[in-house]
Amino acid sequence: MTDDPKKDENLNYKEIKSHSAALPQEKEWEMGEAMANDVTAIYDIPVQISAVLGRSNMQVSQLLKLGRGAVVELDRKVGEAIDIYVNNRLVARGEVVVVEDKLGVTMTEIVKSDKS
Question: What mean pLDDT comes out for the span 7-16?
Fold first, then answer.
């Protein structure tokens, strides 16, 4: 670790691991437990998950003409991955599955964030 607290805030996991390699085994376990306890603090935070099958654009006049049984064409093809959003942020892609009598989503790809 450094003497500069701002720099320590920006360490990634590999850097933390390399710094902890110089620590005795007991200290490393304590550090791991502390990190695990920090993560458990966020377990009860609710998030909104959305699975988007596809999108379509239309004019309000077209929307008003829709009735029961109308089909709205989406921008996805059959079998193409759907987008999975957590709190309106794209995090994964997946496939629709049926679990007993309900629809579900299987994640097939985790989307990397553009932020560094």
Answer: 50
